[in-house]
Amino acid sequence: MKVTEVGVYRGPHYWSKLPMVRIQVDLGRMEEFPTNRIPGFTKGLLEALPGVGRHACSLKVRGGFEKRLLEGTWLGHVAEHVALELQTIAGSRATRGKTRSVKGKPGVYNIMFAYNEERVGLAAGRIALELVNSLLPDELRGIGGLGRISELDGDFDLERRIDDLKRLVRRTALGPTTRSLVDEAQRRGIPVTRLDEQSLIQLGHGRFQQRFRASITGRTSQVATDIAGNKNMTKRLLDDSGIPVPRGIVVRDVEDAVRSARRLGFPLVTKPLDGNHGRGVTIGILSEEQLRFGFAEAQSQAKGRDVIVEQFFAGNDHRILVVDGKMIAVAERVPAQVVGDGVSTIRQLVAEINKDPRRGNGHENVMTRIRIDAIVEEYIGREGLTPDSIPEAEQVVLLRATANLSTGGTAIDRTNEIHPDNAEIARRAAMIVGLDVAGVDFVCPDISRSVRETGGGVIEINAAPGLRMHIDPSEGAPRDVAKPIIAMLFPRGSQSRVPIIAITGTNGKSTVGRMVKHIIRYTGCTVGLTSTTGVYINDILTHEGDATGPRSARMILRDPSVEVAVLETARGGLLREGLAFDAADIGIATNVTADHLGLKGIETVEDLANVKSVVIESVRRGGHSILNADDQLTVRMARRAGGQIIWFSLCGGAEMSPLVREHVDEGGMAVVREAGPDGGTIVLYDDGRRETIMKAGDIPATLHGMAEFNVANALAAIAAAIAHGVPNLTIRSAMTNFRSSFEQNPGRLNVHDAHGFRVIVDYAHNAAGLEALGKVIRGLSGRYKRTIGTVSMAGDRRDEDLREMGRIAAGIFDELIFREDPGTRGRPRGEVMRLLHEGALEAGRSSDHIHLIAGEAASTAAALAMGRPGDLIVVTPTDVHAAWAQVNDFKPAGMRTASRAPLIAAE
C-alpha cells in the first residue's frame, strides 16, 4: 500500500461542497484483499475503535459500516471511516466522507473525508492508515509515501496517537467564544474565513468584511481597550460619572501597600493594574500578612510593577455582558470549590471534579480544570487547611476567593433576575469606557435588588470578555449572546458578501473576465479581477503571474476595497483544493475542449466538463448561470446549474438552436449574435422581449466582427453584466471602448505595428485556442505577404495533443517556428518540438518552412528577425509580459541582417 498524493479541499469541489482531506493510495496487492479476506482484521479494528462500526456508511443505518466490513470492503474505504472516527474521538467531530477509485488505475483510490481543522484532518488521515496497516498480517504490512501526510512519527501506538491528535485539536480548534460567533455568522449565511491559528476571523468579503478575535471586534476602540486595561483609570472615569466603584490606591512596593491598607481599612483586594482573567487577584484580605501575599501575587502577574489595593465589596460576583450599549446577559460566577465526603483529601476531590468532560485546559471547554497553586494554598490556609486535608462530609471548601471561570469557577445564569438599576449601571459603565463588547464585573449581595440599597457596584470593565459562561452556564438557561454581536457587526439588511462572478471554461476565460471587469468599472465600483496574468484591483496589477486558483481568489475576497469580484477559475485550482468561495452570484462557462487531459485523473473532455461544472453548481439560488449554447459539453452543465440560466450563442435569429428558442419562448434570458453586416447584432431576449444591445463590430476587440471568438466572449460578458444589473447604455459605452490592447487585455490578440510589419501576440496555448486564432489570421491573410508563427505547447500534454497542435499550426502559417520552454514538464529536451514537428509534417508541411528553436525569447527573436514589410508575425507566448516587452524593444535594423532563423537554436 502506497500513498501517492495528499491534498486538501478548502471549498466546494468535484466530490462535495464540504472541505475535505484527499489522500490517494495505491493498494497494490492489497487490492486482492478486501476486509473479509484478512483474518482477524475486522475484529481487531472494532476492538480498537468500537465507534467506527456504528457508522451508517452507504447503508444509511446505524452499524452499516460494520456490515460492510463483514461483507468485505477495501482498505481505502476503511481508512476513510477510521479518519472520521479519530477526529470525533479527539473532539473535532466529522462525519462525511467518500472513497472513489481512480479511473484507469486499478487499485488506486482517492480517500476523502471531512475535517474542521486542516492539520487535524491531515494527522487523522495518517493515523488511520497506520492503524489499518498495524492490523494486517506481517506479510501484508507496509505503507510507502506516508511521511508526506504529517509529522507524527515513531512506532504505532493507538492510544498515544489519539493523545497526539487531542493535543493538536486543543492547539488548533476554535475556543467556545470564537466558535459561537462563527456558528452564528454561518447560520446567517455570512462567509467565514479563518486568517490565522490564533482565531483571527474575517466575516464577509471585500468592503463588507468585519474582523474579530474572540470577542474583540474590528469596531472595538483601542483607546477603550487601553482604558479597560488600566483599572485605576477605569474606576476614575466611572466614579466621575456616578457609577459605584470601590475606592483604591495604586502602589509599587509592599510598604506602600501596607500604608494604603491603613487608609482604606480591611477587608481589601489586591490586583495587577493591567491584569485580566482574574490572574494575580486576591480578595477578602483581612490582615497585613495576607496583604503582603496578595501584593506579591498581583505584582508577579503585572506587566509593569503597579498594583491596586482597593476596598472589598461584599457579595456575589457577577459578569454582565453589554453589547453595543445594551445589556445582554448576566451570570453569577461561583468560585472553584469542593464538597467533602469525609474520606478524600482536597487534592483528590479536585481530581474527581476535573474528570467532568465539560472541563478542559484554559478556555477550550465550557469549564476549566481546577489547578491547585500558591493562591489556592494561601486561601484555604486561612481556614487552617492544606491540599492534603480531608474535609468533613458535606463541608464546602472554597478554593479561591475570585470566581473567574478561567480558574475553575462555575456560572449560574441570572439574566432574568437582574434589577433594572443594576442593568443600567452596567450598561452606562460599558459606554463610559467606550467598549462595543464589554464584560462588566459587578459585585453585590443580591443582583435582583438595586445596589443603591444593598451596596456594591462595578469592580472592573473587561475588553474581550469570554462568552462561555453565558453560552453554557453550569446552571440556568443558556443565552444566545453571539447573535447580538453578529447583529452589531452586520445589522439587519446590511450586506456581507460582494457579488462574485466566477468564470470557467477552456478558452476565453481571461478575455471574458477582463470584459466584465471593464464594464463594471463603468458603474463606479471597485473591481477585483483574477486572471492568467495576475491579480488586479481596478486597473492596478497587485500580484503578477498565473492567478486563476483559489489563493488568488482569496486575495480578492480579503481586499477591503473590493466591491465586485471577477474570478477566472481554472481546472488546476479546482482539482487541487476546490473553490475559494462557498457560492457565486454569477457563474460563466465559456466552452470545454480537450486541454490538460491525462492529468490529475482527467482523461476525457467529459471529465474536464464535470470538473468545470463545479463553478456552475456553486451559483446561489438567486444567481445566474451563463452557459454557451453552442458547446454541447457546456449545455450539459444546465442539469446541475444553480440559479437562473442565461444562454449565450453566436447563432441567433433564424439560426437560433431549438434549445435557445424554447428557452426564450418560455420567457428565459439569452444573449445572442444575430447575423448581419459588420459582425452582426448582439441581442438580449428576456421575459418575452427582444432588445438590441449593440453591433458586434462596434466592439474594437472583435476586429469589426472578424474575431468571432471575441464576439462569443463579448456575449458572455454582456450576459454577466446584465445579470449584475448594469444598464444597457452603460454596457454599450464600456464595450465600445474595449480593445485587444496589451493594456486592456494582455496576451489576447494584441497588435503591434511599429516595426514595418504587423505583430500579433496571443496566448493561444491549446488546439482550440490556436484554431480560433487561425480563423482570424486566415481572414487577414490576403492583406499580408507571409504569415510567420511561433507555436508551442506545455510538455505535460498528451503526445496526440502536441501533434494536433502541430497540424493546426501547419494550416495557418507560411513559416513555422516550434519552440520549447526550458521547463519541459517531465519530457526529455527536444521532445515537445519533435512532436509538434511530426504533426506539421503529417499535415503536409515541408521541413524547409519549419524551424525548431529552444526557448521562448530565442524563438520570438527569430520570428521578429525574419519579418519583412508586409509580413504578419504571430507570437504565442507563455510569458505574455516578457514577450510584449521583447516585441516593443526589437530593433528593426536587425531584420535587414538576417533572412531566416537557423534550423536549431539555443536560448
How would you characterize this protein structure?
InterPro entries: ATP-grasp, ATP_grasp_subdomain_1, CPAse_ATP-bd, Cya_phycin_syn, Cyanophycin_syn_N, Folylpolyglutamate_synth_CS, Mur-like_cat_sf, Mur_ligase_C. GO terms for molecular function: ATP binding; cyanophycin synthetase activity (L-arginine-adding); cyanophycin synthetase activity (L-aspartate-adding); metal ion binding; tetrahydrofolylpolyglutamate synthase activity. By secondary structure, this protein is of the alpha/beta class. Among the domains are: 171 residues, no CATH class; 65 residues, ATP-grasp fold, A domain (Dna Ligase, domain 1); 236 residues, UDP-N-acetylmuramoyl-L-alanine:D-glutamate ligase, CATH 3.40.1190.10; 156 residues, Protein-Tyrosine Phosphatase, Chain A (Alpha-Beta Complex). Helix content is 33%, strand content 22%. The protein is built from 29 helices and 39 strands. It has an eleven-stranded mixed sheet, sandwiched between helices. A seven-stranded mixed sheet has the order 33-34-38-35-36-37-39, sandwiched between helices. Helix 17 packs across helix 24 and helix 25 packs parallel to helix 26. The C terminus is likely disordered.
Keywords, separated by commas or semicolons:
907 residues; alpha/beta; Dna Ligase, domain 1; UDP-N-acetylmuramoyl-L-alanine:D-glutamate ligase; 11-stranded mixed beta sheet; 7-stranded mixed beta sheet; 39 strands; 22% strand; elongated; disordered C terminus; Cyanophycin_syn_N; EC 6.3.2.29; metal ion binding
